[in-house]
Design brief:
There is one protein chain. The chain is 75% helix and 0% strand. It is flat. The chain has 16 helices and no strands. It folds into two domains: 155 residues, no CATH class; 229 residues, no CATH class. By secondary structure, the protein is mainly α.
Length: 430
């Protein structure tokens, strides 16, 4: 791909017959340096991790790099170019996408050497820097291979080894889960071990973190506090409707991580059925281990978005209380529907939410979100009307009844799925 670019430079600047040969001399070190770096990094990874773990680590790095790329592209705010006044910033936008420049980068040395050859004055120093750096990298790579290549080759032939010993898990989690019963504590530790051993599971937390950051950035990028003052009504409505959007995000996360938890037990569920262990302990351990992280994400999204929107204390209390009730209900519904529609034959957790049960769970969750938003719209509308007229908010039977109805719906959506899921688990047949 570099050939047409360099050919264009040679034609435009009249490089002559010696320009292609000079480009080969300049470009060769740019190939040697990353080649040595890649080989050395691979060698170090193989010596630290077995071959199987090295592949897992590289996959995590790839996912992280993709997440960072998406995040950086979003932070550039390309939507500004969609407005007529945004075209004046097109040059600035393109400038942000340029490759980094520094006098310590080989690419900068190559650029200086090529332009010195084409337009002058010619300076041999950048070319010397390129070749001396490439030679130094080759020497260091050769020394590294001489010392650790045999051990890395041996480790590459071995299978995956346990990189986390049992005592580490005990030291980390025993103080935290000591108040729980033995059965619940062991179930929680088992699920945590299985989750972090599977790279395809925990690596998705990287993308989840990126999506949460982008979600908050989108709220921050709303043109609410730039220029003229935005009406109080608009800010309040956006903060209220944000509860439904946050609830949908939480439902998607629950469908990916909580819904498959029963199905991932696989055929070993018959061991749990035949053992004296209480299935209720299994169900509650899976519920809390999935709901507590979900609750942390929910509170972070709600509190931070409300702070960005500069909502009133009334809307802050309504948002936090509602999102807590919705999160508890969504976690229970995900676990209950996962028990009602198990997929014990599927080992890939990513395929389980795409089943019929996952579709029913998402549709039911959307109905729950819609019901809560519609019911709470009554007291929120009363608050907006009172605030717009400069009157104090009156707590009447309508406001209390609406919030009570929303609380009862969320409570029922929490208790009923857990009871139905427990009964279904007690009737599993293998």
């Amino acid at each position: 791909m570099a050939v047409p670019f360099f050919a264009a430079y040679g034609v435009i600047y009249d490089g002559g017959l010696m320009f292609p040969l000079y480009m080969v001399v300049v470009f060769l070190p740019l190939l040697v340096i990353p080649g040595v770096l890649g080989s050395a990094i691979t060698l170090i990874l193989v010596n630290i991790f077995p071959a199987r773990r090295t592949r897992d680590l590289l996959s995590v790095i790839a996912i992280g790099a993709a997440g960072v790329l998406v995040l950086l592209f979003r932070l550039v705010r390309p939507e500004q170019l969609a407005r007529p006044e945004g075209f004046t910033n097109l040059l600035d936008f393109i400038t942000l996408l340029r490759t980094p420049t520094s006098p310590f980068l080989p690419s900068e040395w190559a650029t200086g050497s090529v332009m010195g050859f084409l337009v002058g004055p010619f300076d041999v120093f950048p070319l010397v820097l390129l070749w001396s750096t490439a030679a130094a990298f080759v020497v260091m790579g050769a020394v590294l291979h001489e010392r650790i290549y045999p051990r890395g080759y041996t480790r590459a032939q071995e299978g995956a080894e346990r990189f986390v010993k049992g005592w580490i898990w005990r030291a980390l989690f025993d103080p935290v889960f000591s108040p729980l019963s033995v059965a619940k504590r062991e179930f929680i530790i088992k699920d945590l071990k299985l989750f972090f051993r599977d790279t395809t599971q925990w690596s998705q937390l990287i993308l989840l973190a990126v999506l949460v950051v982008i979600y908050l950035f989108n709220i921050r990028a709303l043109p609410l506090f730039s220029g003229e003052r935005v009406p109080f009504f608009t800010v309040t409505v956006i903060s209220f409707l944000n509860l439904g959007l946050a609830g949908f995000v939480l439902a998607s996360i629950a469908a990916r991580f909580i819904f498959p938890s029963i199905s991932l037990e696989g055929r070993q569920m018959w061991l749990l059925r035949s053992s004296p262990l209480d299935l209720r302990a299994l169900l509650w351990s899976k519920y809390w281990i999935g709901t507590i992280p979900l609750l942390v994400i929910a509170l972070a999204i709600t509190v931070l978005t409300n702070l960005l929107l500069k909502v009133t204390p009334f809307m802050m209390v309504v948002g936090i209380t509602t999102i807590i009730l919705l999160t508890l209900a969504i976690g229970a519904m995900a676990l209950g529907f996962g028990a009602l529609y198990p997929q014990f034959e599927t080992e890939n957790a990513a395929q389980i939410p795409t089943s019929y049960g996952g579709l029913v769970f998402m549709m039911t969750t959307i109905a729950l979100l819609a019901a809560v938003i519609v019911i709470e719209a009554v007291p929120v509308y009363g608050y907006l009307r009172a605030a717009s007229q400069g009157e104090p908010v009156q707590v009447n039977a309508r406001i209390v009844g609406a919030f009570a109805a929303a609380g009862l719906i969320c409570t029922a959506a929490t208790i009923v799925p857990l009871k139905v899921g427990l009964r279904k688990m007690e009737r599993f047949e293998f």
